[in-house]
Amino acid sequence: xxxxxxxxxxxxxxxxxxxxxxxxxxxxxxxxxxxxxxxxxxxxxxxxxxxxxxxxxxxxxxxxxxxxxxxxxxxxxxxxxxxxxxxx
Length: 88
Fold this sequence. Notes:
Blueprint: E1 2-9, E2 15-23, E3 33-36, H1 47-52, E4 55-63, E5 66-77, E6 80-87
Antiparallel strand pairs: 1-6, 2-5, 3-6, 4-5
């Protein structure tokens, strides 16, 4: 099992959809991959913003060393949110 932390950046003007490619090892098309947000502040968003943001995170297998996080929101979000991920 691999774990990690990273960020998704919706930009200073806001967006409803962004992606982030993550590099790790040992992935297969049958791997379980999950990304999630925690109640923790980022460089530009508070704990409360992380809790309240209507963000859905979905992961897509790309290669044996890469997966993509898709971050989608019902309304434009701004700046950087922390995400954590796990693979098995």
